[in-house]
Design a protein that fits this description.
The complex is a heterotetramer, with 2 copies of chain A (83 residues) and 2 copies of chain B (145 residues). With 83 residues, chain A is of the alpha+beta class. In chain A, helix 1 packs antiparallel against helix 3. By secondary structure, chain B is α+β, with helices and mostly antiparallel strands. Chain B has one domain: Molybdopterin biosynthesis MoaE subunit (Aldehyde Oxidoreductase, domain 3, Alpha-Beta Complex), CATH 3.90.1170.40. In chain B, strands 1-4-6-2 form a 4-stranded mixed β-sheet, with helices on both faces. A 4-stranded antiparallel β-sheet of chain B has the order 5-3-7-8, with no helix packed on it. In chain B, a hairpin with a 2-residue loop joins strand 7 and strand 8. Chain B is globular. Chain B starts with a strand and ends with a helix. In chain B, 48% of the residues are buried. The chains are: A alpha+beta (83), B alpha+beta (145). Strand 2 of chain B pairs antiparallel with strand 2 of chain C, so a sheet runs across the interface.
Chain lengths: 83, 145, 145, 83
C-alpha cells in the first residue's frame, strides 16, 4: 500500500510517501493511522490526534472509519485550505 | 469548454477571461483570490495532491456545467510559492444569462475550498505556519447541496 | 475606491481588474456582459440618460460598498454602437473575503438592470428593434431589498 | 420645464428634448403625458399607452402619479434595458 502525506503531516513524519504492508488487523483508516504512529517518533508526533486528520483512499476523500479494502494509495493530511 | 489547471506559473487573468468570452455567451462571471499581505505575511506556499486535485476540479467543473448549463468553465489554481498581490486562484464561468454565470462561479469557489486537496502555508519573515481550515467554509459549501 | 464610467470606448477589462486587485483585497469578483450574436443580431446600440446614469451607478456603488464593506467597486457601462463579442458592461468588486465580493457583484448587476437608465436597440441587418424589459429582471433586483 | 425623451419615445416624437410650459391643470406625470400627446401626431403615437412608459423627475425615477411640483427636468422613456 502506498501512503502519501501532505502539509504538516508530511513535515512531522519527515517524508512525503512510503510503502507499507499493514497487518490484517488494520481494517480501516483509523486503524492504519494508529498502526503508523508506532513507526517512528515523527509518525507518532504527526498522527497523535486523529480528529485533526483527513484521508483519501485512491484519491477520493473518505471518513476515518472507511475500510481500506484493496486500497492502493492512501493519503493522510490536515483539513484542506485551498482557494 | 472545461479548462482546469494547477500550475506554479502566475495566473494570466486576461487570457483566461478572453477564452471564456470567446464562448459566445452573454454573461461571464469570475472570482479571483489574491494573496493578502495583512498580518505581516511575506509569502504563501501552496501544496496540493497531484492527480487528485485535477480530478476534483474537473468533477466540480462538470457538475457546474450540468447544473447551470454553462458554455464555459475555467478553474486555475496556483501552487508553490507566491507573494502578496499575486493571484492564488481564478474561477470563471460563461453562460447565456447572468444568474447562471454568477451562481456557478460562487458554487465553484465555495466547493473548491472544501473539496480540493490544497494546503496553504503562510510565511512571516523566517516563520512559517500552516493555515487552519475554517468552519465557515464548510457552511458555505453546504448551501449548494 | 469607487469607479463609475459610461463611455463609447471598448471596456478594458484587464486594466479594470488590475485596479481592483491593487486594492489589497483578498477577493475580487467580476461580471461581464457580452453582446451575443444569437438570433441574427449584427449590432447593438446603447442609449442612456447622461447625468442620471452616472448618478444612479455611483449610488449603487456606494450602497454596495456600505452593505458589504467593499475595498473597491468598478462599474463600467459601454454606450453607443457595439458588435457581437464586445463587452457591454463590467462590474467588479474587491473585498476581504469571497462572500462579500460575490454577493456585491451579483447585487450590482441585478440592480443596474432595473435602476440605471439605459436602453438597448438590436440591429439585425437593416432592421432595428428596441429590446423589451424582462419581468425576471425586476424579480432579480427585488431579492436585494 | 425641460422634457427629455429616450429610446422609442424619442424616436416616435422625433426629438430628444423640448421646453414646455404646461397649464396649471397638469399636476402629475400622467397629466403631463396626456397633455403632451396633443402636441403632434408623433407625440400622440409615442404617448398613447402610458402603461408602457416610465418617467424621471429631476433625474429620479418616479411613478406616473408623481406630482410635478417645481420640476425642472422631466424625462419620459420605456422601461430600462441596460446591463
Amino acid at each position: 500500500m502506498d501512503l502519501l502525506y501532505f502539509a504538516w503531516v508530511r513535515e512531522r513524519i519527515g517524508i512525503g510517501h512510503e510503502h507499507v504492508d499493514p497487518p490484517e488487523a488494520v481494517r480501516n483508516v483509523a486503524d492504519l493511522i494508529c498502526w503508523l504512529a508506532g513507526r517512528s517518533s515523527g509518525h507518532a508526533e504527526a498522527l497523535r490526534e486523529p480528529g485533526k486528520l483527513r484521508a483519501a483512499i485512491d484519491q477520493k476523500f473518505v471518513p476515518l472509519d472507511a475500510l481500506l479494502g484493496n486500497a492502493k494509495e492512501v493519503a493522510i493530511f490536515p483539513p484542506v485550505t485551498g482557494g | 469548454m472545461i479548462r482546469v489547471s494547477v500550475d506554479t506559473a502566475p495566473i494570466a487573468l486576461s487570457q483566461e477571461v478572453a477564452a471564456l468570452e470567446e464562448r459566445g455567451a452573454g454573461a461571464v462571471a469570475t472570482f479571483t483570490g489574491v494573496v493578502r499581505g495583512e498580518g505581516g505575511v511575506t509569502a504563501l506556499e501552496l501544496e496540493h495532491y497531484p492527480g487528485m486535485t485535477e480530478a476534483v476540479l474537473c468533477d466540480l467543473a462538470e457538475a457546474a456545467t450540468e447544473r447551470w448549463g454553462l458554455l464555459g468553465v475555467t478553474i486555475v489554481h496556483r501552487v508553490g510559492r507566491m507573494t502578496p498581490g499575486e493571484r492564488i486562484v481564478f474561477v470563471g464561468t460563461a453562460a447565456g444569462h447572468r444568474r447562471e454565470a454568477l451562481d456557478a462561479c460562487a458554487y465553484l469557489i465555495d466547493r473548491l475550498k472544501t473539496d480540493a486537496p490544497f494546503w496553504k502555508r503562510e510565511q512571516r519573515g523566517d516563520a512559517a505556519a500552516w493555515v487552519e481550515a475554517r468552519e465557515s467554509d464548510s457552511a458555505a459549501a453546504g448551501r449548494w447541496d
